[in-house]
Amino acid sequence: MKKQTKFTLTLLSLMMIWTSGFAKGKGDKSITVSGYVHSYGNVPFNYPCLETQDGKLYALISEQFEKEVFFNTQGKKIEVTGHIKNERQKKAELFSAKNGMFNVDEWSYVEE
User: pTM of the predicted model, to two decimals?
Assistant: First the structure.
């Protein structure tokens, strides 16, 4: 009985390790996009979105920067590097935009 339990636990552990490699998916590569920040929603529930030159709209989210940092960049072109958290989903999400949420790792101003 102990051998069977040990084997089952080992098998489950190996399966978890193997499947965790698929969890990252296609969104793992950092991308860089540039555009202008706009405020969407009503205060106090407004959130910053980045509108790119080709018309894509991403809600800006970040663990490193407060949303006020992005609100202060309105009217100036910025460049953000990070990951698209999710593409547009069928169900509406809070703080979501047309093309998903962009998780910002770093950002900078762009000289025009």
Answer: 0.67
